[in-house]
Design goal:
Layout lengths: L3 E6 L5 H10 L4 E8 L2 E8 L6 H42 L2
Antiparallel strand pairs: 1-3, 2-3
Helix pairs in contact: 1-2
């Protein structure tokens, strides 16, 4: 099985999302992420014969897109989450 290379511009893609996507790919492929010339270069090495070539690339891109969306939702709702957690723990502290 041959490796597949997918690269992203560092100006528009976070490294954390790539790492999360690579982690979710474990079991199907290994992913090595390098930085070069303002780009993140992801080298995908299939570990199973189920996903190959374009199918593996598409699956990885879908995982990266999902992680990007999770980051966006986290940024947009982080303050609400903090308030909810503070209220929940505050009410627990009042009960003691």
């Amino acid at each position: 099985m041959s490796d597949l290379v997918v690269d992203f511009s560092r100006s528009v893609q976070s490294l954390d999302a790539l790492r999360e996507a690579a982690y979710r790919l474990i079991g199907q492929a290994a992913c090595q992420i390098d930085e070069a010339d303002g780009r993140y270069v992801c080298r995908l090495s299939p570990t199973q014969s189920q996903l190959r070539g374009e199918e593996l690339r598409t699956h990885f891109l879908n995982l990266v897109t999902d992680e990007n969306l999770r980051e966006k939702v986290g940024r947009e709702t982080g303050r609400f989450r903090d308030v909810i957690v503070a209220l929940a723990f505050g009410s627990l502290a009042e009960g003691e």
